[in-house]
Amino acid sequence: MTREYNDLIGEILERAGEKDNFDYKGKGKPLSKEYLQMDTFQHFQKIAKDAGYLPQWVKLQKEISQLVHTCETNNDVEEINKKIKKYNKICPHQLQKAPISLEHIEKYKNIW
Q1: pLDDT tens, position by position, for the chain (112 residues)?
Q2: Are the beta carbons of 97 and 112 closer than 8 angstroms?
Q3: Which of 48, 102, 40 is nearest to 71 (CA)?
Q4: Distance of CA 6 to CAs 13, 14, 22, Å?
Q5: Which of 5, 58, 88, 105 could make an SS bond with 96 (beta carbons 3.0 to 4.6 A apart)?
Q6: What sign for the dihedral angle of Cα 20, 25, 27, 31?
Q7: How far is CA 104 from the centre of its chain?
Q8: pTM over 0.85
Q9: Integer Cα distance of 39 and 22 in angstroms
């Protein structure tokens, strides 16, 4: 008993006379060992890093660092603390930072 099924690609190749003339040259290159050792997320992270992608919290960290180094007034401190609060919501837990104050700005310049 033969089983019938629809082989659309096979039929197209057969009509074109290419069904048995398939050349494997250049097809099926072996995957690198590095690719096989990483899971999908790690592979994505490597591609994103190679493409120059930075997570939002890293961009915000750099912005806060620049603001801390140019901070002079209480209004600047308030703006920075708002950004720090946003930063703490999106960064990994162990990288969260405390709000800053104008009195200890030199200490915070070293931290940021």
Answers
A1: 566 667 788 788 788 877 666 666 666 777 778 777 778 888 888 888 889 888 899 999 999 999 999 998 899 999 999 999 999 999 989 999 999 998 888 888 888 8
A2: yes
A3: 102
A4: 13, 13, 20
A5: 88
A6: positive
A7: 34
A8: no
A9: 32
87: which 2 tokens? 């930063």
DSSP calls for 1-57: -PPP---HHHHHHHHHT-TT----TT-SPPPPHHHHHS-HHHHHHHHHHHTT---HH
Q: Which contacts of 107-112 are long-range, i.e. CB under 8 A and separated by 24 or more positions?
A: 108/68, 109/68, 109/69, 112/61, 112/64, 112/65, 112/68, 112/69
Q: Count CB atoms within 10 A of the CB of residue 60.
A: 19
How far CA 109 is from CA of 18, 69, 70, 71, 88, in Å, comes to 69, 6, 9, 9, 18
Tokens of 111: 């931290």
* Placement of tokens 């939002």 in the chain: 56
